[in-house]
Amino acid sequence: MTKLHWLEVSEYASISLAALGLVATTLTQQIIYVATPLTISVCLNVANRERLKYLKEQNLQETLVKQDLLLNPLRQRLANFDTLTQNLSTTTGEQLEKLQNQQQQSLDTFTQRLEQFETTVRDLRTTFQQQVQELQRDRQTQNIDAFRQHLTQLDTFIRQFSENTQNQINPLNQRLSQVDSFTQQLNQTIQQQLQELKRWEQRIVQIETGMQQLSANTLKQLEPVTQGLAQLDAFKQQSNQTTKQQNWEQRFTQLDGFTQQLSSNTQKQIEECFNTLAQLQTEVRALTELVTKTKPQFQNETESEQNKNFEIPLPQANIKLLAPIPTKPQNTKLSEPVSLQQPLNPPTNQQTILSTPDPTVSPSVQEILFQNVLQGHTDRVMSVVFSFNGEVLASGSHDKTIKIWDIPKKAARTLQGKEEPSRVNAVAFSPDGKILVSGSDDKTVKLWNVVTGEELFAFTGHKDKVYSVAFSPDGKTIASGSKDKTIKLWSTDTYKEINTIQGHSDEVLCVAFSPDGKILASGGAGNDKTIKVWYLSEDKFLTLKGNSDSFGGINSVAFSPSGKQIASGSSDKTIKIWQLPNGQEVQTFSGHTDDVYSVTFSPDGKTLASGSRDKTVKLWQVDTGQEIRSFTANDDAVYCVAFSPDGKTLATSGSGDKTIKLLPCK
Length: 666
Known about the structure:
This protein is an alpha+beta fold. The chain has 3 domains: 212 residues, Substrate Binding Domain Of Dnak, Chain:A, Domain 2, CATH 1.20.1270; 84 residues; 294 residues, YVTN repeat-like/Quinoprotein amine dehydrogenase (Methylamine Dehydrogenase, Chain H, 7 Propeller). It has 5 helices and 29 strands. The relative contact order is 0.04.
């Protein structure tokens, strides 16, 4: 029941009490029974009159807004009909002009030919009269035969000319008949379309008149119909998804069989490789022992003969034993730590391992290239993030898995969900590091228990892929950006949707919370090209736009530790620093030669890291904008970068080698 109804009920109740008081006064002869209810009624009437007026005006405004929302599509369709009518009129006019020009040209040609025919006939008549006169003057018999021959030639010429003229006139007449028929058909079609448009215009006018006469009760009656249509759309989408899944089940079964066969073949090849390496190492050891035994004897014989001291260098067996390549990662919740020292024989149960750099490379080169490489994903890694203590790293990949890497123990495990997995686009730790949130292609935002690896809850509400997720600093709110152009806020206490934020005109590719949790930043794709700064507690937002016309889609945003600056990575190959709260563009870092996919601040806020499609990772000095270092540590685009909490290590991932590299920063 609305406030308006409560106010009316309270006033009617007081009047009823006054009536009862009047009856009680009549029976008991005490005026207090009627005076008190009447006083209350008068006070409520005076106090509630303005409120009733305000509530009625508010209800009227809401009714007008709903009517405008219903009329807007009809107005748009009317505008479309007007545009269609204008285009049709223009096209019809152009076609009529072309037909008139063709008719005029045909008539001009026909008139010219008739004039030529008349001129020829006049010339023939003149020549004939002259020849007749000459015959009359001469009166000679020999000229009569010539005259007859000339007449015969004249008749033949006239007959041929008539036939040619007739042959030329017939196509012209047919063409004119076709033009007339087409003109009549076109006129009929235009008349029908104009009548149809007039009927639509009348119908739209009637609909607008009817919509203006709708009351609030009528609008409420339409709400069940709208809900039924929404349920019908949801059922249709669910049916389409079910149909697609049913169509792909057979192909997935075939793919699994092929993968198992490939895994067995690969396993056999790996075993053969390790057996060969073992034999080679045995032979090298035997050769080393043989050379060691024969070396003293060989040296003595050489000294006695030549009195020269020399040594033969022993062959060094520098064989690097490669770790087995995982052909199909096991989706186990928790795996045992894997040692960096791999045995000669390949392990029977393949696990995701943490490998170290090549031992043959010098330490200085290793320090420049990378510290460790995390191997295990079978497709591009789209997101990496460190926990609050820096001992755990989480990664999400398009191979439909999420992995938790225990860096000190050099072990990894794969999180396993309750339903069919989907490609993972983003992951983020809660502030305490006990919960992980992920966003996937299946339109869901999922919560995971980092310790047990179990799926806690799946938020549903987005209508398309989820590209980015972020935890608020207090851990009570999750933000997600989606391909459906919306941002949703979710509560970790109630497991419900808090709010849906709309404002971008294209896909939302990235979201980030400020350090105090009061501001949320988001970036839009190529058709939007803006950064939105949402002040959550104040219900307002700020739009940041680049100065350049080529300012591309925003692939990544990050807050500085102070919360006073925002860094953005864009498809225009630049990194921009924005100042808050005025939203002014402070600096632009240029150095990448392709799209910038990821940016992140170091914990002290003095350094900014960026990953790009140009296969490089760059470190920048924030206050000066100078490029500090540049790494080329991937075979393909760098999709994400993340600093460790102590700022000494930078995690990067790309699509070429499907690995995660840990780069030294200090």
